[in-house]
Amino acid sequence: MNRSSMWEAVSGIVKRDLLLAMRRRSDAAMSVFFLVIVASLFPLGVGPEPAVLRTIGPGVLWVAALLACLLSLSRVFTADYVDGSLEQMVLVPQPLAVLVAGKVFAHWLISGLPVVLLSPLLGLQFGLDGEPLGVLALSLLLGTPTLSMIGAIGAALVLGVRGSGLLVALLVLPLYVPVLIFGAGAVTGSMAGVGGEANLSLLGACLVLSLFLAPWATAAALRIALE
Amino acid sequence: MSVNWSKYSAPMAFYPLAGRLIPWFAVVAVVLMGVGLYMGFFVAPTDFQQGESYRIIFVHVPAAWMSMFLYVVMAIWAGVGMGLNARLSFMMAQAIAPTGAMFTFLALLTGAMWGKPTWGAWWVWDARLTSELILLFQYAGVMLLRTSIDDMRRADRSSAVFSLVGVVNVPIIYFSVQWWNTLHQGASVSMSTGSKMAATMLMAMLIMTVAFWLYSIAVILARVRCIVVERDSLPVWDEKPAVIQEAVEAR
Fold first, then answer.
1. How many residue pairs from chains A and B have C-beta atoms closer than 8 A?
2. I want to staple A72 with a disulfide (CB 3.0 to 4.6 A). Which of A31, A218, B177, B184 is the partner?
3. A177, A178, A217 member nearest B165 (Cβ)
4. Cβ separation of B148 and A221 shorter than 8 Å?
5. DSSP B59-99
6. pLDDT in tens, chain A (227 residues)
7. Could you give the ipTM of this predicted complex?
8. Residues of B with CB below 8 A from A162's CB?
């Protein structure tokens, strides 16, 4: 297996998934709209007190990003599973874990990156400004790929299982907790003046660890699902 | 005399063996639990800071240890099952999950009962409490995933992958009191520095730990037997290997 053919396979998968997403743009837009709506509900529910909103802002935005990622997880593998192309991916000579990494990267580009880009705007809704706003975007930039990586394991495990939508939430949300804590902690830390570097480093560590381990676990889960 | 241990990896051969072992583990567990609780409640001295309320640790600490330990054991069985494709390993992993979840719940419950008089709150969002709660969710996830999948082979393997992924959480729980400076007190017993408590306290706690451990073995073996009967639709519950053998051959 030479390196160029592996690269071609991955870039082919990424391009294909992006193309498919472009053909059904409303699907991709839905999770972003979900994020905006959830984030806008909190000021309405909690009350427009600026001090309160500033305090809960980082946590609320992170939870909303988490849920938006969760809702889009079913799209990573389901369509390919139903039309049989997932089985073809298992059969190609390139390692499945590498192809999975490509699919997860495409998923992040479609559902994670818009969240990152939109987050400063949503942060303004909650009265964040200056450095915390930047830290919020940076923490999401480091954190959302981890969410996609971990989420892919769950999505692969529940493929074709009844009640999979709810089940994937129950499986994946506990595993999301460290990312949530570090992500929201980075923003809160920067607001408190102690800086978000420690938590951002931990987010980076989570990302590296999940990049290393999650594709293998996902590939194993996919093989089990396709048996 | 050499024993062919691999023979017992067959559920049919393991079934009578487990049946013979259960009473031993159960009896010793009950005796040790009695001794440990007596020592904990009547022999161990009163703590000069926390008064009598500290005595819950004789249940709390062993339960918390078992909750983490059983998760690792479950993951090891799941890994062995994936590696060797052994059905009994998956059955062991399946049997461990409810007991592990029970100990996790017990640790959280006794922790709350201790926290109210000592910290003044049933629950605080501290790193160790939160990570122990996540462990409970993970046990629930493993069990839910298994029950949601009808195909037994896929259920085994999928929940094995999930429990292996979740092992990452165990060191986080264990070291959380060192990594984050939070409300939950640090470990009083450690391998490297020894114990920081009175000898009778430590003794009672260790006895309780062994008791919980033996209790887990007894309960898990009993559950494995039920799983064997259920999955292999054994027609008999009889102890005698010959009877089981006969029933299997008759099928």
1. 57
2. A31
3. A217
4. no
5. HHHHHHHHHHHHHHHHHHHHHHHHHH--HHHHHHHHHHHHH
6. 566 788 888 899 899 999 988 888 887 788 888 989 998 888 888 888 888 888 888 889 999 999 999 988 888 898 888 888 888 888 888 889 999 999 999 999 998 899 999 998 888 888 888 888 889 999 999 999 999 999 999 999 998 888 888 899 999 998 998 898 888 888 888 888 887 888 899 999 999 999 999 999 999 999 998 88
7. 0.86
8. 148
